[in-house]
Specification:
Layout (H helix, E strand, L loop, with lengths): L2 H8 L7 H16 L5 H16 L4 H12 L1 H4 L20 E4 L3 H8 L4 E3 L10 H8 L1 H9 L5 H7 L4 H7 L2 H7 L3 E4 L32 H6 L5 E3 L4 H12 L6 H4 L7 E6 L2 E6 L11 E9 L2 E11 L2 E8 L8 H16 L3 E4 L1 H4 L4 H6 L1 H6 L4 E2 L2 H16 L7 H7 L4 E3 L21 H7 L5 H9 L1 H11 L1 H8 L1
């Protein structure tokens, strides 16, 4: 693809108005006719067009974007596909991926798609031997008298396939086998190119994006309550979300063990839908409440969220897929926090150091620390607070100043917290050591239909809160030992 055309198309992200729409249409029409061979250019084309599909300036832009994206399996014929399996860009139509998903995820994927064992990349195939010896008597006989058994041949001669193996091996044993599964996407609706959540109304961007400087968490929290409805037939939504995560090599705890009886939907406006849920009783964590969800922009999945709640505090893991990070990220994040605040009663939000960049180069590159800081989050470390003050002073003195990656890594060593008192600053769950005693009412609520009631009851139990904070706060322990 001529570099000038690709660069011009990239520049259309975030451009609005009639002239911008006409320009985007002309560029997409030219891009549709091109046949590229360079994987890097194909990847850039795909991600740019996918962004425009999620944030279109007009109906014509949307239709052209879909036409290009739906043609990607054909566009990749004869192209070197190895670069397309990187986790950052995996899931494009016409490509494949290989990884050792859990038993539950493989079971659900195999019910809808053809999966195969990736024998060439199976480093632990000998682990499969004892299992096949039990399932195929002649294979067991062979293993008893032969020093080197070809387990792949036995598996294939018995017409074994992933569904058969999943049906005959318990989840724990299967997970220990660490079987790499190969999934060729082809034109699958699970590919990133084709995944769409049906939406009656599309939001077309005629004006500028909502900037981070225009977003106030307190103002969003004070706005009218977000309407939430229970999804009557959630299986299709849950499957779509599971597949969306899987093509990116990701397994979220709540996507693997969804509470399908309690799936909820919220429409944030501006073309954004969120589906969220907890986990069923048998998969719940001993102390904290767990919730997760995925959000869509004009039917395109753009990221996911995971929340671990204890009393009024929620540790939030927010991940916006890199393709869409030039959109309205701050506004979207504010809506996510507002939703959990209203639904679960949490008022304090914490961000783990990994999300900020601790041993996470992706977060360093995206400047995640300053994203949260500029929304009003504060550090829980006095030492890091001094570093922040120095960086902010440098920014004020020189508007062009940029924090170095080395400094960002130092800033990311401690959690950030929003609207949390000092008692949460030194909180570390692992310091609690043992499970606190819960009242019978809390135990029943923990095992109930949902964890919402459990969390609300916990938020009213001041004595339990005091005991947990005292036992899991490094500052409290330091004072007691002193």
């Amino acid at each position: 693809m001529p570099r000038s055309l690709l660069e011009a198309l990239i520049e259309m992200k975030g451009r609005f108005g009639r002239e911008a729409a006409r320009r985007a249409i002309a560029l997409l029409e030219r891009a549709e006719k091109l046949r590229l061979r360079d994987p890097r250019e194909l990847i850039r084309l795909h991600e740019t067009v996918l962004f425009l599909r999620a944030y279109p300036q007009s109906p014509r832009v949307l239709r052209l974007a879909d036409r290009i994206l739906f043609s990607f399996a054909d566009r990749l014929r004869g192209v070197d596909l190895e670069p397309f399996e990187d986790p950052e860009i995996s899931g494009i139509a016409g490509t494949g991926l290989s990884t050792n998903f859990s038993h539950e995820i493989v079971r659900r994927l195999a019910a809808r798609y053809r999966l195969q064992i990736d024998w060439e990349n199976y480093e632990h195939r000998d682990r499969l031997g004892p299992v096949l010896a039990r399932l195929i008597p002649l294979a067991g006989e062979d293993a008893a008298v032969e020093p080197h058994v070809d387990w792949r041949r036995w598996f294939e001669s018995a017409r074994g396939n992933i569904r058969w193996l999943i049906a005959n091996v318990d989840p724990q044993t299967y997970d220990l086998l660490e079987i790499p599964v190969r999934w060729e996407l082809g034109d699958s609706p699970a590919s990133r190119s084709r995944t769409r959540l049906p939406r009656r109304e599309i939001f077309y961007h005629h004006g500028s994006f909502i900037k981070r400087s225009e977003v106030s968490l307190e103002a969003e929290f004070a706005a009218p309550r977000i309407a939430v409805t229970k999804v009557a037939r959630p299986r299709r939504i849950v499957d779509l979300i599971t597949e969306t995560s899987a093509v990116r090599y990701r397994e979220l705890y709540g996507f693997t063990h969804p509470d399908e009886a309690h799936v909820y939907h919220a429409d944030f406006g501006r073309g954004v839908d969120v589906y969220f849920w907890g986990v069923p009783a048998e998969w719940r964590l001993p102390l904290r409440a767990y919730h997760c969800g995925m959000f869509f922009k004009n039917g395109v999945p753009i990221g996911y969220v995971e929340g671990l709640s204890l009393f009024e505090r929620m540790e939030v893991g927010f991940n916006l897929y890199y393709t869409f990070r030039e959109g309205e990220t701050a506004w979207l994040y504010a809506q996510i926090l507002k939703l959990f605040r209203e639904q679960l009663g949490v008022t304090c939000f914490s961000v783990d150091p990994y999300q900020l960049g601790c041993e996470n180069d992706e977060a360093i590159e995206s400047g995640a620390f300053w994203f949260y800081r500029k929304l009003g989050f504060r550090t829980t470390s006095e030492k890091i607070a001094r570093l922040i003050a120095g960086e902010e002073a440098a920014m004020q003195e020189n508007p062009g100043y940029r924090t170095t990656p080395a400094m960002l890594r130092r800033l990311a060593r401690s959690p950030l917290i929003y609207n949390g008192g000092a008692e949460w600053d030194g909180f570390e769950l692992r310091r609690l050591g043992k499970m606190p005693a819960l009242s019978e009412e809390l135990v029943r609520a923990k095992r109930g239909a949902e964890e919402k009631r459990y969390l609300r009851l916990m938020q009213r139990d001041r004595d339990l809160r005091r005991r947990v904070l005292a036992g899991a706060n490094r500052k409290s322990l330091a004072r007691e030992s002193g």
